[in-house]
Amino acid sequence: MIQFNLLNNYVVLANNLNIKINKNKTKINNINKFIFCKWKYILNDKLVLIPIKDTIYRQRRKLRKMFKSNINYNEIETTKLCFKAYLNIGNCYKYIKK
Are the C-beta atoms of 50 and 38 separated by less than 8 Å? Predict the structure, then answer.
């Protein structure tokens, strides 16, 4: 009920600014946990970013294929470094360690 009132207030404010809001598409959610751009965001006392498991599985599969197809070792190391840099965006110590 509170979310419905909040949405109505938002629609009234948007109408005052000549912005059209589609009530069917607009939804108000709790933001303690949500997924955006292949990262899981958790908001407790601080914001924690965790990569989605599918991303990690995809990267492991890619590295296995590279090893099996005898690709140059330097290319494999470059791929690992790029993924490690991607993981450094969030709070991923245990994933980097793996």
Answer: no
8 A C-beta contact, residue 14 and residue 20: yes
Task: End-to-end CA distance of the chain: give it in Å, rounded.
Answer: 45
Task: Calculate the alpha carbon distances from 62 to 55, 69, 76, 83 in Å.
Answer: 11, 11, 10, 11
d(CA 61, CA 19): 45
Question: Which tens digits make up the pLDDT trace of 47-70?
Answer: 888 888 898 899 889 988 988 888
Cα–Cα distance list, 30 to 3, 33, 35, 40, 43 (Å): 10, 7, 12, 14, 10
Residue 55 and residue 36 in contact, taking contact as beta carbons nearer than 8 Å? no
Q: So what's the pLDDT on residue 17?
A: 93
